[in-house]
Every structure is written in structure tokens, then in C-alpha cells.
Amino acid sequence: MEIKGRGLFEGVPKTITVDDTIRTALERTPPELSADISDRGIVLAGGGALLKNLDKRIREETGLSICIADDPLCCVVLDAGKILRDFKLLRKISIE
Fold it and tell me: Contact, 17 vs 1, CB < 8 A?
């Protein structure tokens, strides 16, 4: 899929091609996590979550429930900080 926008650093129009990265990631997901994703869906976070109609496109391609995180621009940084403060939580959610 081609996505058109403005390059962050150059500020000029730019087109990038997004391949089947999400599908590949889902195929490589361990079965115990796949069940959670199937039941709960995917939460988009970070700046990419704000790309117009990305949630709809991913929903169409995967058949999964998709939602955008509250405050997607800040939630990644804020939650990463929480994890770094609580190593027990990090161990609980880490994939070995």
C-alpha cells in the first residue's frame, strides 16, 4: 500500500510503500498472545496511529478489532517510563 504525506525532516511531499508487515508480525506471534489479540484486538499507538484510515485498512486486512490508543503521541513514552520504573511488570509482560 502506498502512503502519501510530508517527510518529517525534509518537509517535502513523500510517498512510502508499506508491505504486509502487520500480517507477518501476526504470523510470528506465539499462540498464547495470538489468542489475546484475537479476543481483544489491536491497539494502535504512536504517531503512525494518526494516519488517516490506517485503522480501517488494518481492520479490513486482518479482520481484527482495531482501536487507537488515548493520546497516541504520548502513550508510548509514558508507558515505557512506567515499565522502566517497575521491573516486576517488565518481567511479567516480556517475551523470552
Answer: yes
